[in-house]
Structure formats: C-alpha cells, structure tokens
Amino acid sequence: MKKNGIIALIVVLIIGLTGMYLASPYLAASSLRNAAMESDSDKLESLIDFPSVRESLKSQLTVAMMAEMENDPEMKDNPFAGLGAMMLPTMVEKMVDAFVTPDGVAAMLRGQKPNEKAAPSLKKEIEFTTSYVNLDRFRVAMRNTEINEDGPSLVFERRGFASWKLIKIELPSGFLSKPNSPN
C-alpha cells in the first residue's frame, strides 16, 4: 500500500511540475499585462529585460528607417542623404532609450502611444494571441481588431524553471511604411 501511495505522489508531483513548466509563460504574460494596467513600474522592471528590448528595437528601427530612406525617391538625389544615414543610428538610439521605459512599455501594452497621458485602460480592440516559439521562448502577438492591423509581438525568454522575461518587441512588417492611423 505504501509503494502505491509513493508512486501516486510522484505521478502527481510530475504532472504538477509539468503543468507549472508549461503554464508559466502564460502567467508571465498575464503578469506583464496586469502590471501595465496598474502602471506598476517595479513589477514591469522585474518582468522586462530592458537592455535586450532596447537593442532589438534599435536594430529593427535602424534597418527599417534605412530601407525607407533608400526607397524614398526624394532621398536618392539628396546630397544630405548620406549625412542623414550616418546620423540615423544615433537618432534611433535616443528615441528608443526615451520610450522603452516601464511607462512606455505599459502604454504600448494598453494600446496607447508611449507618451500618452490618458488614464490607464486596456483598449478593447487590442487582441492578444499567444504561442510557444520553443520550450524556452514564448510569443504574444498583438492585433488591433478595430483597424484590422497587426501590432508588435512580445517575445519572452525562460529564465529558470518557471520564470520568464520579456526580451524583445518585434515590430510588424512594414511598420514605418504604414500611414499613421488615428488613435
């Protein structure tokens, strides 16, 4: 009888740990969303790897802006285009550093602009879709259903057994070439 009890306990323990292992990114994404709603800077700091997020955004924005400059017919013949291309990484760095803060990320998760001062409330038209990339990476894709447009995706990375951090914000393709839509 004792042997069956020990085996049952081990099976329950394995099932519980597996459930915790697999459910942990969903809990981390939910915690991030709740911290954004509450504008809880300390909680956001603990859930986000800000240096990784900043670096990923800097590289994405620099590449996108360089492509926009190269494809702009007015810039092709502009003698100052080279100067602009040289200054672009510095401008992107300053812009990303200014907006990738706990308040800026919280605003983005609520569907607001980074510097928007409106009261924190989740816009109903923002839809979140979650999926595993692999066992150590998890993606939360955002979509604005009102204007039928993809938003950024949040990539989480496992840090320990059941702990996750946001490490990357992936901008949707064509992010800079889309016309600004009213908020």
Biggest sheet, open or closed, and with what strands and sense?
Answer: 4 strands, antiparallel
Amino-to-carboxy terminus distance: 65 Å
Total strands: 4
Order of helices and strands: HHHHHHEEEE
Q: How much strand content do the residues show?
A: 15-25%
* Helical residue percent band: 40-55%
Can you list the strand order of the major beta sheet? Answer: 1-2-3-4
Keywords:
alpha+beta; 19% strand
If you had to describe this structure to a student in words, what would you say it looks like?
This protein has a four-stranded antiparallel beta sheet. It has one domain. A hairpin with a 4-residue loop joins β2 and β3. By secondary structure, the chain is α+β, with helices and mostly antiparallel strands. α1 (2-38) packs across α2 (41-47), α2 (41-47) crosses α6 and α3 packs antiparallel against α5. It contains six helices and four strands. The longest helix is centred in the N-terminal third of the chain and has 37 residues, at 2-38. The protein is elongated.
SSE blueprint and pairings:
Layout: H1 2-38, H2 41-47, H3 50-71, H4 73-76, H5 81-99, H6 102-109, E1 126-134, E2 137-144, E3 149-158, E4 164-170
Antiparallel strand pairs: 1-2, 2-3, 3-4
Helix pairs in contact: 1-2, 1-6, 2-6, 3-5
